[in-house]
Amino acid sequence: MNTEILFQPFTAGNLTLSNRVVMAPMTRAFSPDGVPGEEVAAYYRRRAEGGVGLIITEGTAIQHPSAVSHQNIPNFHGEAALAGWAKVVEEVHAAGGRIIPQLWHVGMARSIGDLPNPDALPIGPSGLNLAGEKVTEPLTPAEIENLVAAYAQAAADAKRVGFDGIELHGAHGYLIDQFFWEQTNKRTDRYGGDLAGRTTFAVDVIEACRRAVGPDFPIVLRFSQWKAGAYDAKLAHTPEELARFLEPLSNAGVDIFHCSTRRFWLPEFEGSELNLAGWTKKLTGKPSITVGSIGLNSDFVTREAGDSGEDNIGRLLEKLAKEEFDLVAVGRALIADAAWPEKIRSGRTDEIEPFTPESTNTLK
Description:
By secondary structure, this protein is α/β, with parallel strands linked by helices. 30% of the residues lie in helices and 15% in strands. Helix 3 (141-160) runs parallel beside helix 5 (200-213) and helix 6 (239-252) crosses helix 7 (276-284).
């Protein structure tokens, strides 16, 4: 099978990648007290050496006490953590790769008492968890303003320490997504309302980040329909609704949309074979990243895609050749095998190390 299309260069603005393979962001929690060390830097360098065109780091905590829910999730603030990330960037660039951090706040997905700050309460647009139950009070306008500033500061720090762009985590039921979703956003001020109105917090974040980094620093937004534990959730039920959702985000300054689905091959709406990334590119004209169960089996090249999570690489390459999307994010397969892209490129698929649950136990 000819995988050449996957290894063609890609350029968007001042971001130039050697190929279309992206390392998807995956929480690893190997940064003691929030500081990424040499082991983390080596982990990301190995993926660059293995042929990944763009690395998106695991989610990193913006400067807010309830941003994340584990003491070993890396921070993206503070002198020690940012020095650690500077070393990560240095290692990845030395291997010829490109890397952007994913900036993250988990919002109401955090439980009361979670580390690293057990006294910090979870926050969200309406204080509702993903089940729609009240846990805390809604965010005040002043608190929202401080959160926007924290995202912008992280974006400025990313540029300062040498990253090639940023990704904002607006998917999977975390803070930005909680503003998007009607189930968790019951606000009646400018941050609530209809689907377009519920993008206002994200728009404020994107615009603040853009001011912080200037016009040429890439901003990627990851979004999803599904939420953790609510896999059938929908922000948009039709292409028309998706267009109303995407327009303000695109206009605010998103350069690339990272469209998170669980299975890339599934159509997003009836009557079209386009997946979420395909529709997003069609509606916005902006580059898009597809993701979802790509490369989970060492023998995936010859297998049909199905609910087992096995990958249909032929369908992926066909969609990429049709320019339905521009980049392909690979997740768990890259945890198991840092050289996954190079083995695909050179036809050594029989040498691919398959993903297993044990793959997550170390930074191999």
